[in-house]
Specification:
8-stranded mixed beta sheet, Immunoglobulin-like, alpha+beta, Dipeptide-binding Protein, domain 3, 865 residues, 3 domains, 11-stranded mixed beta sheet, 40 strands, 30% helix
C-alpha cells in the first residue's frame, strides 16, 4: 500500500506539474505573441566588432545572428569554406566610393588666404579636378583592393539599379574608361597649372621646379583625408591615389583620420578654413531606387546639402546656378514631359561630371551574412542596398530555451563605437551615420509612403490616397515652370508664420531663400487628391491624432521662414532643404470625415505611384535626411531648449555649429534637459501656437506626462512609432536593445507577403565583340528567375521579358525585344539596322524583368566596322 500510495502521489504530482507546464506554456505563447505586436521576434540586440573578420567568424559560429554592415569583396572572398557553409549571404551592388574635392574659391587666381598666409589650391581649377577621372585606374582598384567584387563607377547612379544606365552612358561618351589614361591626366593637369601660372596674379609666384609645383617658393601641397578605419578598402585606395597625384608635381599630405575626425574636418567646417582638400568617401545606396533626381541633387547641387559648405549659410559654399535651377525643376516636379525630365537630368549629370567636385570611383558588390541555422527563413532586403530596416522587421529567428526570439545584430566599427553622431530628430545633421540608421529605422514609420525594397515602387503605409478623387492639370508657363489648372477652393488652409495663424487663400512665393505668404482669390494647383491618414500609437502609449499632422505644418513653416532679422526659430539648413520645394505651394482642406483634400504642385507623369505618393501627409517633422519621427511634444521640447536655454546650462542647437551643443536624445544630460522642458510644459498646461484647435489642455498634459514617464523608464527621448522601440541603451558600453512594441498594428507577415515577388537575373550574354555592319549580329542572353527574398535560382519564368537597347553614338537608342527559345533568350540585330550606323564602338544595355520589380541590368560594348 505504501508503494501504491507513493506512486499515486507521484503520478498526481507529475500530473499537476504537467498541467502547470502546459498552462504556463500556453500562457507564455499567448503573452509572447501579444507582446510582439506585429513583429516576429521579441528583442534585437545591437553590438559592434572592430575587426570585420572576427565579426564574420562570430556570425558563422552562432555567437551573433546577423552582420548588418556590408562586407567588401576582399574580405568576403578570402573566407574559408567551412565558414561560408554556415552563412546565408545577401549579395548586392550597394556601396560606392567617391572623392570629394574642396574647390575653394573655385575661381581664378585659385588662391585662399588663411591666418595671413596665401595658399594656392590646385583643386580650385576645374580642369585639374576633371583630369582626376583619367588619372585613376578604377579597374586596378577593384581588382587589387576589392578582389574583383565591384564595378567601375563614374556617377552617383549605382550600376545594376533600375533607371541608371542613362546616367552611366554620359561619362563613357566623355571618354572616361575603367583603366583611365595616366599620361593624358598628367598632361592635362600640368597644362591647367601652366595656364594658372600665366595669370597676372600668379605670374612669378606659381612655377614648376625640379618636378614640383611651387607657390611663393613653397611646394604646392594638398591635404588628403583618408579613412584609416577602412583598412582593407579606402586606406589602400587613398594611398594609391595619393601616389598618382604626386606624379603630377603636387605634394600630398596624408591625413589618416577615422570617421569622427574626418566628418568634423570635412563636413562640419567652412571650406575656406582650408583644413582639407580631398576626402575618400564611401556611400551606401540608402534604398532601392527607381528614380535618381533626388540623389543627383544631393551629390552635385548645393541645395542637396552634401557639397562643400553643406549649404550652411555662414560658410563658403560650392555653387552652380544652372545645376540648382535644373535640380529645383526636376526634384520638385516642375516639368511637363518625361523628355523634359530626362533632358534636365542628363544635363545635370553632365555638369556634375564636368565640375568634378565629387568624382566616383567604383561601386562595390557587398556581402551581408546571416547564420543559416538561426533563421526560419530569408529576410526581406533591398536589392539595391542590402540589409536594411525591412530585414530587421522581417527577421524570424529560432527561440531560446525561455521561448524568447532574440535577434543579435553586429555592425563593424573600427573605432569601436555604435554611436558616431548626435541623435537629433529635428536638424539636418542628426542620425547621420550608418549605425544609427539600422537601429532607428525599425523603430520608426516616418513617412506616409516608402519605397519597396524589391520594386522601388512607392507604397502607402500611414494612410491611403483616394485615386477616385485624383485630378491633374498642368500646362506650360511663361518662365519654364508649368502652371496648374486645378482650382483651389477659397477655404484651403495654410499656416502663416508671419501672423502665427492658419489662414485661407494663401500661396507661397519663395525666391533666393526668402519666403513670402500672399493672398489670392484665384489659386491653382497641378494636382488634387483626397488622403485619409492612418493613425497609430506612439511608443509612450498615446494614440496619434490630427494634432501630430498639423503641428508638422506649423513647425516647417516657422523653421524655414525668416520673418525678421532676429528670428531665432529660423534654421538656414532646414530652409535650404525645404524652401525650394515650397514655391507656389497652396493650402489644403480638412474634411469633416477626417480626410484631407490636398493640393500640390508636383507633377511626375512617368510614374503614377510616385505622383500619388506626393499627395500625402505624415507625422514626420524635421531631420529630413533620415527615417526618424517623434511626437510633437518631443520636437517642441527640443525647440524650447534651443530657444530658451536649458537647466544644465548647455547652449543647444539643431544646426551643425560646433560652437554649441548638439541636440542628442540619447545623451543623458540632453535627455534630462528635455525632461525638464516637458515638466515645464506639463505644469503650465502649455499648448504650442498653431495647434490649439486640435488639442486641449488635458490632452496636452497627458502627452507631456507620458513622455516624461517614457524617459524615466527607458533613459532616452527617442519616442517613435515603429514595430520596435529602444528598451535599453548605454552609449558608454556600446549597448542598445530594441523590444517589440506590443501596440504596433501591422503584421510583419503581411509585409513579407506584400513585398515578396518573382525576380529575374541575367547570368551571361554571348555576343561578338567585333561586328561587320554587313552581317547580322546574333546575341544569346541567359536569364534565371527566383522568388525574392529567397535566392534559389530557376529557369526563366515564362513571363520574363528581355529588352535590349542599342545606344547610338550621337544620342538616342534602338530598342529590341529578345525571344525565349528553349532556355535561352535570342536576338538578332539585322544587318539592315547596322549598315546605317557609323563605324566605331557601341554600347548595348540589357534589361530583364517579369513584372514591375527592379530589373536586372547589364551593359556590354562592341566595335562595328
Amino acid at each position: 500500500m505504501k508503494f501504491k500510495f507513493l506512486n499515486y502521489f507521484k503520478l498526481l504530482f507529475l500530473f499537476i506539474i504537467a498541467i502547470l507546464f502546459l498552462t504556463c506554456s500556453k500562457d507564455k505563447n499567448n503573452i509572447s505573441q501579444t507582446d510582439r505586436g506585429g513583429a516576429l521576434i521579441d528583442k534585437i540586440i545591437f553590438n559592434i566588432r572592430t575587426d570585420m573578420t572576427i565579426a564574420i567568424k562570430d556570425v558563422a559560429e552562432g555567437k551573433a545572428d546577423l552582420m548588418a554592415s556590408g562586407i567588401d569583396g576582399g574580405v568576403y572572398l578570402s573566407l574559408e569554406k567551412k565558414d561560408l557553409d554556415k552563412l546565408d549571404t545577401y549579395e548586392v551592388p550597394s556601396g560606392t566610393w567617391s572623392l570629394l574635392f574642396n574647390p575653394v574659391p573655385n575661381k581664378a587666381p585659385y588662391t585662399i588666404t588663411k591666418d595671413g598666409k596665401t595658399y594656392f589650391n590646385p583643386l580650385a581649377i576645374r580642369e585639374v579636378r576633371f583630369a582626376m577621372n583619367f588619372l585613376i585606374n578604377r579597374k586596378k582598384l577593384i581588382d587589387e583592393i576589392l578582389k574583383g567584387a565591384g564595378m567601375p563607377s563614374f556617377t552617383q547612379a549605382t550600376p545594376g539599379q533600375p533607371g541608371t544606365y542613362r546616367y552611366n552612358l554620359i561619362p563613357l561618351r566623355m571618354g572616361m574608361t575603367e583603366n583611365g589614361n595616366e599620361d593624358k591626366a598628367i598632361k592635362d593637369i600640368n597644362k591647367a597649372m601652366e595656364n594658372a601660372a600665366n595669370l597676372p596674379e600668379n605670374r612669378g609666384k606659381l612655377k614648376k621646379e625640379n618636378g614640383w609645383w611651387k607657390y611663393n617658393n613653397e611646394i604646392v601641397s594638398i591635404k588628403f583625408v583618408i579613412r584609416v578605419d577602412d583598412p582593407s578598402g579606402r586606406l589602400p585606395a587613398g594611398n594609391s591615389i595619393a601616389d598618382l597625384i604626386e606624379k603630377t608635381g603636387i605634394k600630398v599630405e596624408k591625413l589618416l583620420y577615422d570617421r569622427n575626425k574626418s566628418t568634423q574636418v570635412v563636413y562640419l567646417t567652412d571650406p575656406k578654413d582650408y583644413e582639407w582638400n580631398i576626402l575618400t568617401e564611401a556611400w551606401g545606396a540608402g534604398a532601392t531606387r527607381a528614380w535618381w533626381d533626388v540623389t543627383l541633387r544631393q551629390m552635385y547641387v548645393r541645395e542637396g546639402n552634401y557639397m562643400p559648405g553643406g549649404n550652411v549659410a555662414e560658410f563658403w559654399n560650392y555653387d552652380n546656378k544652372e545645376a540648382s535651377k535644373i535640380s529645383d525643376k526636376n526634384s520638385n516636379g516642375w516639368f511637363l514631359t518625361s523628355e523634359e525630365y530626362w533632358d534636365g537630368n542628363m544635363r545635370l549629370q553632365e555638369i556634375g561630371l564636368q565640375e568634378a567636385v565629387r568624382i566616383y570611383l567604383n561601386s562595390q558588390t557587398q556581402f551581408f551574412v546571416a547564420n543559416k541555422e538561426r533563421f526560419n527563413g530569408r529576410m526581406l532586403y533591398g536589392v539595391g542596398d542590402g540589409i536594411n530596416d525591412w530585414s530587421i522587421r522581417s527577421a524570424d529567428v529560432k527561440p531560446n530555451r525561455r521561448g524568447e526570439k532574440i535577434l543579435r545584430v553586429l555592425q563593424h566599427s573600427a573605432q569601436g563605437s555604435l554611436f558616431m553622431s548626435p541623435w537629433d530628430p529635428v536638424g539636418v545633421g542628426g542620425f547621420s551615420d550608418a549605425y544609427s540608421g539600422i537601429i532607428i529605422s525599425p523603430c520608426s514609420d516616418s513617412g506616409a509612403t516608402f519605397e519597396s525594397p524589391s520594386t522601388a515602387k512607392d507604397i502607402f503605409r500611414l494612410g491611403e490616397a483616394d485615386t477616385n478623387t485624383l485630378e491633374i492639370g498642368v500646362v506650360a508657363g511663361n518662365n519654364g515652370i508649368p502652371v496648374g489648372t486645378v482650382d483651389v477652393p477659397k477655404n484651403a488652409m495654410m499656416f502663416n508664420p508671419y501672423t502665427q495663424k492658419w489662414e485661407e487663400g494663401l500661396t507661397i512665393v519663395s525666391k533666393d531663400g526668402n519666403i513670402e505668404y500672399k493672398k489670392s482669390d484665384n489659386l491653382k494647383a497641378y494636382i488634387k487628391c483626397d488622403f485619409k491618414p492612418k493613425y497609430f500609437k506612439w511608443h509612450h502609449g498615446i494614440e496619434s491624432s490630427l494634432v501630430d499632422l498639423m503641428y508638422g505644418s506649423v513647425f516647417i513653416a516657422n523653421v524655414v521662414t525668416k520673418t525678421n532679422d532676429n528670428d531665432k526659430y529660423y534654421d538656414s539648413a532646414l530652409a535650404g532643404r525645404y524652401a525650394p520645394a515650397m514655391d507656389g505651394a497652396v493650402g489644403s482642406v480638412l474634411n469633416e470625415d477626417g480626410s484631407f483634400t490636398l493640393y500640390g504642385n508636383y507633377y511626375f507623369p512617368m510614374d503614377i505611384d510616385r505622383q500619388i505618393a506626393t499627395v500625402a501627409v505624415s507625422p514626420k517633422i524635421g531631420n529630413p535626411n533620415r527615417n526618424t519621427v517623434v511626437p510633437f511634444e518631443i520636437n517642441e521640447a527640443i525647440m524650447k531648449l534651443v530657444l530658451e536655454g536649458s537647466k544644465s546650462g548647455n547652449v543647444y542647437t539643431i544646426s551643425q555649429d560646433q560652437s554649441f551643443t548638439a541636440i542628442d536624445v540619447k545623451n543623458p544630460t540632453c535627455v534630462s534637459d528635455i525632461r525638464e522642458k516637458l515638466i515645464e510644459m506639463r505644469d503650465s498646461k502649455y499648448i504650442p501656437v498653431g495647434i490649439e484647435q486640435w488639442i486641449n489642455e488635458e490632452e496636452a498634459v497627458k502627452r507631456y506626462q507620458a513622455a516624461i514617464d517614457f524617459i524615466d523608464n527607458y533613459g532616452h527621448a527617442y519616442i517613435s512609432n515603429g514595430p520596435f522601440f529602444i528598451s535599453k541603451i548605454d552609449s558608454k558600453a556600446n549597448y542598445i536593445e530594441l523590444s517589440a512594441f506590443k501596440d504596433y498594428s501591422e503584421s510583419a507577415k503581411y509585409w513579407i507577403e506584400k513585398l515578396s515577388t518573382k525576380m529575374s537575373r541575367i547570368e551571361d550574354i554571348e555576343y561578338p565583340s567585333i561586328v561587320n555592319k554587313n552581317e547580322d549580329m546574333n546575341i544569346n542572353i541567359y536569364v534565371s528567375s527566383y522568388d525574392y527574398p529567397n535566392n534559389n535560382l530557376e529557369l526563366p519564368d515564362e513571363n520574363t521579358k528581355v529588352k535590349v537597347l542599342l545606344q547610338l553614338q550621337k544620342g538616342g537608342e534602338i530598342e529590341y525585344n529578345a525571344n525565349l527559345e528553349g532556355e535561352v533568350f535570342k536576338l538578332t540585330i539585322p544587318k539592315k539596322d547596322l549598315s546605317n550606323l557609323s563605324a566605331g564602338e557601341y554600347i548595348i544595355v540589357f534589361e530583364s524583368f517579369i513584372a514591375d520589380e527592379s530589373p536586372s541590368i547589364e551593359t556590354r560594348s562592341f566595335v562595328l566596322r
